[in-house]
């Protein structure tokens, strides 16, 4: 049986949850149903079972510091039924009855972000630090080059040695041996979550499934000497990032399916029809990001289900239990007696709650009239994510609130384009703003429909223009409260970290020398470029590679104390870096010696990269401008057979063309801007001001071929 097409079981709600904080305890004795244990950001651990469709509490702890992770443990080869939670820098242990047996205060100065337990071994990670403890005694320590998102250890009983694996933000899995790095595994996106394949690492115990923040899933075999990439599922449907992974046989064919929870609320089930690559079996959309996912038997003996816990603490079960219906064909189908009584009890519970809310609201209104009354600001939690998408060179801003959103005001002190998002049902209105006195370029309000808790916006920035984007989030709570969240738009905002670059391209070089420390130049690079770890790297020097997601040009940056070397095939990138770095050094009163080497061939190369994109966008714009006229012809003539095939094609594809044009409204203007910048920057390095020739260039761009454009650049 496949998982039901809709959640048939909505379980109690807990507080806001972090990801990987819900687990199912192993079934005990003759009772085949499992208990659910979940930890929330109020610091409360809730454990309950299901009896006759109702939640029966087992235990609930008192509030405390927020719970970042919840794992099950126990002696190896025995049922894993001890509950361990990470709160702040402490790890607590509870029995399945809720009795606390462990309180281990670690020596970490930061809060624990990730945790894994295997027998007596405890693996903990803060932002950059990994620690391994055995029986609460410090064993090993490692400092990572970038933020650690998750940690895992290959099963000791299968591989006979302790092999921890760290999922790091710089698109790398780091495999450790003791306190040393064994090797690094490059993956296609920033890995956010790790899980053992099949729950046990596969036959060899070496197989790890990883999920990335850009929605890809892959399987890697971690052997003793080098990694083996087995398969990877792309993200063609442009769904959200992966937050949780589990393996469970929900179909009942003896082969475990792969369960995946995404940050856009998509729950997916993949099965392995051919033994190699997974195939999507079914999916289900929830309204919030899925923080934890597990397969098991919770509600009714003999019927497995997939349990998901969402960001705001809702627990939802997709069950294989059929919904019994009465009545035959021709008659109206009726729900079973049990289901009907369940619905009526829920209705009466809702009515009681609504009455209670009205009474409390009246009480609040009356008390607020008195002169001594104090109105306290209600606290609410916002889960936000601001990431660059490689596919369309735009930033996604995702805002998720634990309660319904009323409106979001977006303000920016730099020019940005707000792009259309399919999933977004909010009504947007733009306000005119003065860019001069208070550098206010964008002011837009998104008014959300009732019960919207998640809002996704798309933003495209312009390289060279940097500043701050602010989101003012107002939820539907009384009294009205607003939270402000800030996001930095960096000078080279469309660049993304990459593992390697093409060294054969013609490159321009920028060289900096001066009395600056390694930490100072690193802070300047962090200011200029996204995806650079804020912590100063270990060692004496560092090299980072970047790719421009809009144009495909590249950048190599190598720097150490007193020296920085930047190479790019795009002169504009070098020009932006030169301006920003010299400005930052001047602020700190550091004297910089700047030299550069400009390669003439690089301009030709960059133009060859831009021109096909320019041609495509010009053609798209022309087609879109023709659509209305062609539709009018169609209405008047009734038949369009007399039109040339290319015009008939425009009519046939009009919906797709309009959709594409609407999604990227200012694409053509951006390309014109980039060509203009390239033209100005080429001559700026020669000490010539060609701004007077820009109108000529723009005139020429309209119908110019690649060779003509290159010739103009060279003749100028």
Give descriptors for this structure.
45 strands; 22% helix; disordered N terminus; 38% strand; BBS7 protein; coiled coil; 6-stranded antiparallel beta sheet; Double Stranded RNA Binding Domain; 11 helices; alpha+beta; 716 residues; 5-stranded antiparallel beta sheet; Bardet-Biedl_syndrome_7_prot; globular; Immunoglobulin-like
Contiguous uncertain segments of 5+ residues:
1-7, 326-333
Strand order of the largest sheet: 40-42-43-44-41-45
- The rough form would be described as globular
Report the biggest beta sheet as strand number plus sense, adding barrel if it closes. Answer: 6 strands, antiparallel
Structural class by sheet pairing and helices = alpha+beta
């Amino acid at each position: 049986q496949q998982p039901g097409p809709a959640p048939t079981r909505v379980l109690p709600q807990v507080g806001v949850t972090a990801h990987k904080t819900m687990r199912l305890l192993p079934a005990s004795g003759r009772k085949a149903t499992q208990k659910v244990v979940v930890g929330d950001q109020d610091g409360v651990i809730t454990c309950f079972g299901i009896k006759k469709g109702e939640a029966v509490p087992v235990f609930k702890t008192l509030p405390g510091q927020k719970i970042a992770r919840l794992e099950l443990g126990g002696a190896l080869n025995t049922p894993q039924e001890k509950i361990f939670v990470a709160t702040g820098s402490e790890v607590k242990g509870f029995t399945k009855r809720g009795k606390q047996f462990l309180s281990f205060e670690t020596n970490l100065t930061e809060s624990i972000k990730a945790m894994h337990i295997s027998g007596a071994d405890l693996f903990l990670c803060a932002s950059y630090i990994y620690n391994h403890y055995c029986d609460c005694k410090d064993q090993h320590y490692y400092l990572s080059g970038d933020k650690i998102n998750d940690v895992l250890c290959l099963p000791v009983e299968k591989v006979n040695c302790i092999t921890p694996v760290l999922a790091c933000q710089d698109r790398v899995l780091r495999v450790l041996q003791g306190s040393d790095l064994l090797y690094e595994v490059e993956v296609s996106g920033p890995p956010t979550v790790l899980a053992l394949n099949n729950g046990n690492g596969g036959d060899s115990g070496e197989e790890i499934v990883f999920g990335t923040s850009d929605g890809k899933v892959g399987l890697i075999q971690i052997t003793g000497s080098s990694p083996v990439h087995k398969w990877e599922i792309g993200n063609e449907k442009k769904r959200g990032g992966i937050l949780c992974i589990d393996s469970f046989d929900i179909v009942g064919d003896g082969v475990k399916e792969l369960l995946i929870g995404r940050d856009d609320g998509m729950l997916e089930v993949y099965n392995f029809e051919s033994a190699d690559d997974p195939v999507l079996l079914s999916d289900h959309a929830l309204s919030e990001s899925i923080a934890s996912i597990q397969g098991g038997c919770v509600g009714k003996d003999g019927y497995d289900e997939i349990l998901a816990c969402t960001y705001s603490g809702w627990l939802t079960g997709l069950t294989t239990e059929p919904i019994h219906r009465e009545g035959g064909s021709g008659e109206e189908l009726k729900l079973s007696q049990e289901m009907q009584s369940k619905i009526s009890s829920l209705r009466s519970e809702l009515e009681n709650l609504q009455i209670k809310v009205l009474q409390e609201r009246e009480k609040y209104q009356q008390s607020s009239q008195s002169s001594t009354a104090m109105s306290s600001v209600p606290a609410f939690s916002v889960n936000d994510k601001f990431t660059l998408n490689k596919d369309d060179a735009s930033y996604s801003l995702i805002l998720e609130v634990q309660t319904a959103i009323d409106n979001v005001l977006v303000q920016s002190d730099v020019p940005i384009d707000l792009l259309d998002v399919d999933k977004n049902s909010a009504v947007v209105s733009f306000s005119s703003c003065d860019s001069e006195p208070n550098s206010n370029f964008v002011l837009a309000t998104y008014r959300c429909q009732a019960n919207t808790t998640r809002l996704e916006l798309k933003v495209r920035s312009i390289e060279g223009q940097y500043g701050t984007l602010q989101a003012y989030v107002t939820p539907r709570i009384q009294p009205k409260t607003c939270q402000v969240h800030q996001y930095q738009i960096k000078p080279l905002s469309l660049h993304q970290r990459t593992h390697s670059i093409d060294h054969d391209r013609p490159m321009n070089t920028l060289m900096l020398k001066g009395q600056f420390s390694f930490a100072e130049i690193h802070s300047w690079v962090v200011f200029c470029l996204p995806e650079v770890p804020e912590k100063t790297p270990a060692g004496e020097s560092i090299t980072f590679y970047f790719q421009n997601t809009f144009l495909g040009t590249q950048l190599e940056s190598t720097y150490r104390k007193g020296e920085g070397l930047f190479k790019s095939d795009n002169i504009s990138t070098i020009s932006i870096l030169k301006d920003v770095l010299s400005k930052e050094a001047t602020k700190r009163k550091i004297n910089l010696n700047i030299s550069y080497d400009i390669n003439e061939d690089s301009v030709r190369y960059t133009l060859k990269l831009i021109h096909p994109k320019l041609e495509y966008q010009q053609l798209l714009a022309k087609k879109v401008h023709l659509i209305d006229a062609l539709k009018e012809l169609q209405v008047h003539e009734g038949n369009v057979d007399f039109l040339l095939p290319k015009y008939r094609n425009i009519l046939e594809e009009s919906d797709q063309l309009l959709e594409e044009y609407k999604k990227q409204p200012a694409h053509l203007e951006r390309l014109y801007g980039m060509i203009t910048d390239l033209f100005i920057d080429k001559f700026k390095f020669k000490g010539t001001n060609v701004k007077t020739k820009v109108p000529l260039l723009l005139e020429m761009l309209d119908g110019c071929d690649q060779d003509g454009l290159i010739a103009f650049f060279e003749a100028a």
